[in-house]
From TrEMBL:
Annotated source species: Streptomyces thermoviolaceus subsp. thermoviolaceus
Protein name according to UniProt: NDP-hexose 2,3-dehydratase
Domain dTDP-4-dehydro-6-deoxy-alpha-D-glucopyranose 2,3-dehydratase: 6-210, 231-429
Lineage of origin: Bacteria, Bacillati, Actinomycetota, Actinomycetes, Kitasatosporales
InterPro entries, per the entry: EvaA-like, EvaA-like_sf
Pfam families listed in its UniProt record: Hexose_dehydrat
Amino acid sequence: MIRDTADFERWFAERCAAHSFRVEQVPLDELDGWRTDPETGNLHHRTGRFFSVEGLRITATGPVARSWAQPVIRQTEHGVLGILLQRHEGVPHVLLQAKTEPGNINAVQLSPTVQATVSNYTRVHRGSAVRYLEHFLRPRPGTVRYDALQSEQGSWFLAKRNRNMIVELPPEQAVDVHDDYCWVPLPVLPDLLRVPHLVNMDTRTVLAGLPRPGPPPRKGAPGKPLHTWTDLQHHLTRSKLRHRVERCVVPLREADGWHREDGEIRRDDGRFFRIIGVEVSASSREVTSWAQPMLAPASQGVVAFLSKEIGGVRHLLVQVRYEAGTADVCELAPTVQCAPGNLPVSGPRPPFLDTVLQAPTERVLFDTVHSEEGGRFHHAANRYVVVEAAGLPLDVPETHMWVSVDQLTRAAQLGGMVNVEARCLLTCVHTLPGHGQEAMT
C-alpha cells in the first residue's frame, strides 16, 4: 500500500523499468492495418473501427468571422475513462495505472483505472481484456459518484466525447491489484500533479469531476460569487447564439493549405501540427505491437487561469472558446489557451496572454508542463499555469467572465460545458490552498 510520495516514487520507478516500449516514426503509406482512400486521401483502419483522419472545412460567423480547412481526427465511438475510488483506513484512494502510450514524452504516465475505446474493450484488436472494466459498464447501485460525457480537444478532434466516471467501492470490497496499478491516496496527488508529464490527461480530466466540498468563505465575508449560476448559463448560451460555426467534412486531399509529403501530412507554412505515422511495440499493453497515424503539434501551448478573490470567494477567469471540432459550438475554457509559436509575428495577441507570461514568480500559484492525450497525439504538451491576479479589474472583455471555483467545478461535473483543457487545469487548481484543496487531503 502506498502511503506517501516516496512510496509512490519507488513503485513508479519499478514499473517504468519493467516496461519495454519502442515508438518509431514511419511513412503513412507503410502503416500496417491502415489504408489511404485513393479518392479522398482519408486515412482509415482496415476494420473501419478505432478512428480516421479526414478533412474539415470551417466557416465561423459572429464578432470574428473567419474560415479555414484542416485535417481532423474523427472518432465516433465513446470511450470509457474511469477511476475507482475506495477508502483505506479512512483515507480516500484512487486506483491508477502506470501505462505506456505511443505519444507520451516519457513513455509511462499515470492513467485512470480504465482508459479504453469501445474498439479496445470489445477487442477488435484481438488483444487481452481491459482490466476492471466491469466496475464501469455494470456498476453496483449507489457506487457511481460521477458520470458524464465530456469533450476532448476541439481543435484536433471532430465532436469527440468520452464517458468520464468515478465509481466508489465499499472499503470492505477486495480488489485484485495488478502490478501496473496502485492505490494512490488523494493527499499524495497534489505532489504528483506538480511533476511534469506524470499524471496523464485522462486522469486529470476525470479527477475534475471528483465530488468535493467547496472552500469555506473567509470569516466575515459575504461568501457569494460575483455572478449567479443562471448568469453563467446565460453567458454561455448567449455566446452560442451570437456565433455560428458551419462545419463540413471534406476529403482530406481537399483541405486547403495542407499537403502530403515525405510520408506525412503537414501545413504549407509548418504551423499548428503534422499527421505522422508510428510503429509501436509495448510489452505491457493489451496488444503488444501495432501501427497508427498520430497528430504531432508544432509547438508547446499555454493553458492558464487567472485567479482572484472576490468578496471572500475564490474566482477564476474563464473565456468562451470556439474550436473547429467542438460538438456544441463553444465551451468554457481557461483564461488563456493558445500555442504562442503558432501566433503570427504581427497582429493582435490573445487577451491576458502577456499577463500570464510576464507574471512575477511570487504570483504564480501553479506552473507545470503536462502532456496531452498520448494515444492520438505525439509529444503534445501544454504549460499549465495558475496566476494570482489580485489587481486585475472585475470588468473584462465580453468573451470572458469571472466564475467561482465552485461554479466551474459544478459546470465541469455536468458535461458539455467545460472544455478538456479547463477541466485538466481545474484539477490542478483544486490542489491549491483556498481553491478547494480540502478534497485532496
